[in-house]
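Q: I'm building a small set of examples for a reading group on sequence design. Run inverse folding on the following structure and report the sequence directly after it, with nothing in between.
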């Protein structure tokens, strides 16, 4: 696109005849009005066609997470032998103390023979239970956990095990006070142990954000979790496309910011190279070089800048993709694809759901922290470079301004005193240096331009300009 808006010599002359200047050697929008209509149309079409790519390329391939709806019950060791201590009230509702407006239902069939037939259940240890059901999305069937002892502050199946299960835990039990007294303190699923584990995991996440950890305090990079869904209602919720576009909106914004960021470095480095013509000889850098000339940079900038900027842009795009992303969940019950609303509960209104899958927008707080941190580093890098970068004295700044470049190409020497545009066959293929070709003074106007011969440094206080009739002090 930069090459399409690069002006030809005729286009520059036409612009100068109307007292306008164009950009040379950098991306420019102001050049569109001065270049040929064909190139302008191609530039516009190329720009418009590339915008949709940023909205969809990150979701061309996406994952649909399978989640199983299960029933999970925690019971005392004497559950299968002593049923007299259980007092079950039909129609009773226990409200969850962890989630507002959500509740754990007491199933009427909890104590029926279907559930009390111990051949239907597997007695597993705490470690086995944690290994099977610790993932955010459960993929195993029903199970019974029989702790050796209990140390629960509240006998609430959902609130006590919310760190293990992200969905509703249905089929919970209501225990009378005598069962509490029947248990003793000891090992089990301990609140203190979970808190210590949470602190350890949180510290590991903060120290190693580049890894995809799944902790109790932060959501890992790109990790899908029902606790990390964005509450949003889109008008065309029955289609996946709106959620794809919304999830990739930050990618498009980042691309436009990167173009501006890259353009600023291009302008700074172009002026720096331009200024060096006043201190040492160098050949011209052109798009289509002839013998004795240099070509433009492959990545628009010197490798010492282009490669770090490219890596920085790629990492920023990756951090964004791991921060906000498309979330699709397919819910299975007893191996059959089912409606996800009973499983997702309060998140149902956030996205589109059907018998196939739930579609919404997920986010990762760990990814957002990494994205903001890396974005801040990139901004600081720009500020530091712009303040530290120096420009050799002598040549007036304006290495991307066509008027400044044109003035430096009008040759006039001490002998003939006439102005002429340096012909390509004369010096365009030779090493050039910018300097004084015709001495000036406080009352006499001199001239500075590119030359293949010897040049002098301008003297402060002397006059240098173009044609005498248009000369001004500089």
């Amino acid at each position: 696109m930069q090459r399409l808006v690069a002006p030809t010599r005729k286009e520059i002359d036409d612009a100068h005849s109307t007292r306008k200047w164009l950009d040379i050697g950098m991306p420019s929008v102001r050049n569109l009005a001065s270049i040929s209509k064909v190139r302008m149309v191609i530039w516009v079409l190329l720009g418009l066609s590339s915008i949709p790519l940023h909205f969809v390329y990150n979701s061309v391939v996406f994952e649909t997470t399978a989640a199983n709806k299960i029933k999970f019950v925690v019971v005392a060791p004497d559950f299968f032998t002593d049923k007299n201590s259980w007092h079950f009230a039909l129609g009773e509702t226990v409200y969850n103390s962890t989630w507002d407006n959500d509740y754990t239902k007491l199933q009427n069939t909890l104590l029926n023979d279907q559930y009390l037939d111990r051949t239907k259940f597997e007695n597993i240890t705490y470690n086995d239970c944690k290994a099977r059901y610790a993932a955010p999305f459960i993929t195993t069937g029903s199970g019974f956990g029989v702790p050796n002892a209990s140390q629960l502050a509240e006998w609430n199946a959902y609130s006590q095990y919310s760190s293990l299960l992200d969905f509703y835990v249905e089929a919970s039990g209501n225990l009378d006070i005598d069962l509490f007294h029947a248990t003793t303190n000891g090992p089990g699923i301990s609140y203190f142990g979970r808190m210590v584990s949470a602190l350890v995991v949180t510290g590991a996440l903060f120290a190693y954000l580049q890894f995809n950890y799944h902790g109790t305090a932060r959501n890992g990079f790109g990790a899908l979790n029902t606790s990390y869904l964005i509450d949003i209602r889109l008008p065309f919720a029955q289609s996946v496309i709106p959620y794809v576009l919304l999830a990739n909106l930050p990618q498009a914004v980042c691309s436009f910011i990167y173009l501006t960021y890259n353009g600023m470095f291009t302008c700074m480095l172009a002026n720096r190279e331009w200024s060096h013509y006043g201190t040492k000889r160098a050949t011209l850098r052109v798009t289509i070089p002839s013998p004795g000339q240099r070509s433009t940079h492959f990545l628009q900038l010197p490798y010492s800048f282009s490669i770090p900027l490219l890596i920085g842009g790629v990492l920023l795009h990756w951090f964004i993709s791991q921060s906000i992303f498309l979330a699709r969940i397919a819910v299975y019950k007893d191996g059959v694809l089912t409606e996800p609303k009973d499983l997702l509960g309060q998140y149902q209104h956030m996205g589109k759901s059907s018998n196939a899958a739930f579609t919404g927008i997920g986010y990762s707080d760990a990814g957002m922290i990494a994205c903001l941190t890396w974005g801040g580093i990139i901004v600081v890098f720009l500020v530091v470079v712009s303040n530290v970068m120096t420009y050799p004295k002598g040549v007036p700044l304006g290495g991307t301004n066509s008027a400044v470049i044109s003035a430096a190409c009008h040759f006039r020497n001490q002998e003939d005193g006439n102005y002429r545009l340096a012909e390509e066959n004369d010096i365009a293929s030779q090493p050039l240096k910018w300097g004084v070709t015709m001495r000036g003074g406080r009352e006499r106007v001199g001239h500075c331009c590119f030359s293949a011969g010897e040049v002098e440094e301008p003297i402060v206080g002397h006059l240098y300009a173009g044609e005498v009739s248009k000369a001004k002090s500089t």
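The chain has 14 helices and 17 strands.
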